[in-house]
Amino acid sequence: MDWNKFESDENILEYLSKLPRYENTPLKSMINRARFLLSLMYCRIFKVGRPLFVVLVTNNKCDFNCDYCYGDYGNRKGMPDYTTRKLLEIIDELKEMGTRILTLHGGESLLRKDFGEVLNYAKSKGFYVSLNSNGTLVPKRIKELKCLDNLCISLDGNEESNDKHRGKGSFKKAVAALEAAKHEKIPIVVSATLTRDNMNDMEFLADLGKNMRFRIQYSILYNFEDLNKDIVMSDRKIRQVTNKVLNLKKQGYPIYYADNVLISAIQWPESYDSVRFFTKKDRDYTKHLRLVPCYHGKLKYQIDADGRVVPCWAHNDPNAPNVNKLGLKEALNQCKRNKDCEFCCFLANNEHNAVMHMSPKNIIEMLFLHVIDALKIKQ
Fold it and tell me: Distance between CA 70 and CA 315 in Å, rounded?
């Protein structure tokens, strides 16, 4: 689509509003999920680099100011966001470059008034689309979200520990979002960021996930060097908590991660206090280790709302290649050329890395989860 033929974003939104509403079904969602797997097999067999999986941060603004936020989105309120035109141009170009999975992220994406139209357009292009949200505006805009393949809500633990870092009232808002999504049969994942304050809430979240039928993704803090040391777990605590997560999974709780990803984190060969990823210069050391290879910056990328392209949030480089200066294709290519890391300890990264490495066990587990999620979608 040539978006330049429209005089303004208002004209674009008027056009988008007249497009048919995408009606997601289990079959449609299953097909879009299968396209990713087939494209992944092609890229791995023929050693082709392609942005199959892209996290696109739609805006800088966020109505929360979480004190561990890797992107400091709570303090970006004065920064300009993508115009509707620019966001659609990026989505179109990603489609042409072979992207299959598109995760829309914030900031808080639902602060964008045009989000529903952008989402509907992305679904009409054939992407598997997920949304990461703090949940505040989910109940109000739930009808716009019905076409999602997956909704990820941030919730760190019980009300006290969650609200301590995410703000008073955020727990109740997240639960209300979960209930709204469950009512509309939108597949749900809860993302819990692990800190010293919520490390004893694993069982609480596991029970909640079992009762409300969502899966739980626990995350280790990114960019911990810049954070208040009072919230950062020690090496020993990280291993203890990750082991607890593995045990919860073995007990049948709906944990997002595969066993080998959790075991890899428990057996990380260096201290979490000092070393959280290995680069090319560490090859003499890592060649003897059984670690999950990294495919971020090869098959998966993150595009920030300020235009920067990074392999993952652990590399929050202020001078990263920028789509606003270089264009999308060149920014992605430069990110790929600049990529230096080869292994890391981050759970969410390695869950995707293990799948992209085509580990048979991880592929089977991913297929099982995707079938379950697709079948949840309201028909």
Answer: 10
